[in-house]
Amino acid sequence: MSVSSFGSYTDVHTTGSATYGNVRHPLSPAYGYGIVLGLGFTFAFVMICTTWLLKRYQNEKQTVEQFTTAGRVVKTGLVACSVVSSWTWSATLLQSSGVAYRYGVSGPFWYASGATIQILLFATLAIELKRRAPNAHTFLEAIRARYGFYAHVVFIFFGLFTNILVTAMLLTGGSAVVESITGMPTPVACFMLPIGVVLYTLFGGLKATFMADYIHTCVLMIILLIFAITTYITSPLLGSPKAVYELLVEMAKESPVDGNQDGSYLTMRSREGAMFFIINLVGNFGSVFCDNGYYNKAIAASPVSAFPGYVLGGLAWFGIPWLAATTMGLAGLALSKNPAFPIYPEQLTVPEVNAGLVLPMAATALLGKGGAVCAILLIFMVLTSATSAELISVSSICTFDIYQFYFKPLAGDRQLIWFAHAVVILFGVFSAAFATGLYYVGVSMGYLYLLNGIIISPAVLPAALTLLSKKQSMWAATLSPVLGLACSLVTWLVVAKFKYGKITVATTGENLPMLCGNVVALCSPAIFIPIITFITGADNYDWLSMRQIQLVGEGNPDKAQGLDQPEEINPQTGEVTYIDPYQDQMDHLEKVLGRSKKITIGMSLVMLIIWPMPFFGTGYIFSEGFFTAWIYAAIGWLLLSTLCVSIYPLYESRESIKHVVVSLMKDLCGIHPRTIQREWEMYGSSTEQVAAALRADPESIGGISRPQTMSPDSARMEGLGIDGVQAKDLRT
């Protein structure tokens, strides 16, 4: 099987009740409906119950602020978990396994490293967004505040198109897997898969997305570890790295890989793999930097959690495609001529590989029907968690950047949350219909994955410079993405025409046109921005208009700036000292910023150059011992990732979890917890002074007299015997 390109992106239609192309379904359609609908409604029910518990015991009201920003207090572990979940698409598992099937060990690493550095580098943007626009709900609000109408409209287009493409990728890949395993028709799967996601997103908003991300990620990690342990330890078909190594050596002799060192599957030197790496690297900058969902998570994070959350999330995510593809992609390749392989003696065709069928076929070969169930469950988890983030992203853009600003500037909280809910439903329906249309015209997940960067990467550089540079002019930010998009589309189509003689889905999906289009998309704005800035004049932006973005429902600009909150009152003169509530946040973020740039750039250099390039340059072919070490390193990395995104969030939130559980138990016993709820909200469970006062005299708090010259907060603090310094610490 000589592999030289991504091949033709022709459609793979159902050809009977028992096949998907060459693939025979290991499970009946009932499994598909049961998992897709059953799990969807189950998660919706769990998230609805969780939202109710938080509302009752944590007093989290479902305002539009809470719906879209989760209160802006999400902690590091949950931010990392949510980043991992949002960045784990269907393609993360399916496309990475496909490139491993084509190119061998280089494919998983190129996929993982080429899509990790964007998350690491985005950590710096997350800090800048928290510094520059602390009250923003979307990144586009910052664009509008700085540049005005024209740039705002341009970036709305790129932001929404990013969400549309990502959601289409999720649904096309997920529906293809459901079809291949169960026989559920692809159009039906496209419409069924989003139902549960829409429901729990409606009821819980971004907070429900964070909580669902945690559950999904835990299940994802467990299933991936099951696959790895089965493949490399327990399977009678493989059972050790040595067995896989020997089969890959035999495969290279029978069907060497065109462009790989000596045709081997066990080398990092792969011409086609390197081309995929560049496409992957360039395209994924657009998928992160232009997706409002990642800015949403930065906005939702507490100031101290944004940077470590994204760094931990990026490093934890790296292990997922690396191990998933190194396990399932190589297992599928090693077993492709084994009678246990579902389509033996036939081989997976290029369209079937592009559709993402390597992983489910390998899972079925290794674990039978249990493996098929694990595969469909895995894809369901990945699809629903990432889709939820896209729903919130689109809802935020349409609510704050379109509806509120251009149509209903005075809309109240109830109107905005109603509109946000409506957008979630409408976008869910639109995405299902769009994915179905792509299926019928023959566009696969793999094609969309490569096309992604050509369309959205022109906005990456101007978007980043909006937060990083005060010199970029309004016209440079407005025109450079549009000109870059025109250049990338022309380059992509012209290369396809000259290289292959015609423009079709097949020819435009080849490596070379995709590579050229993606590179031009990312790099051309670097030429346009300085030229346009020189012509129109450099800006000297002071960042003030971004700071003036207001919270919803707070029409008083002083309140939006926090200027109506007294720090203290002079008892002699009555003079009130005002403070900026964001000053401590700004000071902290300023300290972190310089360190973040050094750390993220250093990590990126390690993953892009220091680690892989010596192997690529020397053309080293893995020995059996080195391959074994490589496998165990990937497993170890995923175990550390599991600790980071599964155990650490529980540890961080242990007090809140304890409070909800204790309050629920009291409620069930007839003791209503709201007596102490107000104090819990105000000071938090870690405030030792409040806890001690409550233990000493539970009735004292409610009876505190409040002098007219003191704020309610100050009166409560004085009643508890807390001085001014301690009170300031508590408020912080």
Automatic annotation (TrEMBL):
InterPro entries named in the record: DUR, Na/Glc_symporter_sf, Na/solute_symporter
* Protein keywords: Membrane, Transmembrane, Transmembrane helix, Transport
Q: Where is this region: Disordered?
A: 703-732
Membrane topology according to the record: Multi-pass membrane protein
GO MF annotation, one? urea transmembrane transporter activity
A single GO cellular-component term on record? plasma membrane
Subcellular localization, as worded in the UniProt entry: Membrane
- What's this protein's family per the entry? Belongs to the sodium:solute symporter (SSF) (TC 2.A.21) family.
- This one is known as Urea active transporter
Q: Which organism is it from?
A: Orbilia ellipsospora
